[in-house]
Design goal:
Elements (H helix, E strand, L loop, with lengths): L3 H17 L1 E6 L5 E6 L5 E7 L12 H7 L9 H23 L1
Antiparallel strand pairs: 1-2, 2-3
Length: about 100
């Protein structure tokens, strides 16, 4: 849905990100948003995640972004890479469920 409200909302979010000196690098399947902050000189400083809560004090972490958050990886996973990893993970879980039912 791309009405005038969504255009204004995207513009306001972009203005806030620019004012804070950050870029959104990705969103995982749980709705968590990952940000990279930059200094005045344009150098990357810190990496954070804004969790989307699922009830009282409950949230889910995506293990595919943890390497980037802990600075073990230089680049965050791309959306295509995340989709591939999610499909592999779901197949792995399904195989475990099938094995458990036997």
């Amino acid at each position: 849905m791309s009405g005038p409200q969504s255009i204004i909302r995207k513009f306001l979010i972009k203005q806030k990100d620019d004012a804070l000196g950050r870029d959104r690098v990705g969103v995982d399947r749980f709705g968590n948003k990952y940000y990279q902050y930059y200094s005045y000189h344009g150098l990357p400083t810190k990496r954070i995640v804004l969790y989307k809560f699922f009830g009282t004090n409950q949230f889910n972490q995506d293990p595919h972004f943890l390497g980037w958050l802990r600075r073990n990886q230089i680049l965050p996973p791309t959306q295509e890479e995340l989709e591939r990893l999610y499909i592999e993970h779901d197949a792995f879980v399904q195989k475990g469920i099938e094995w458990d039912e036997e």
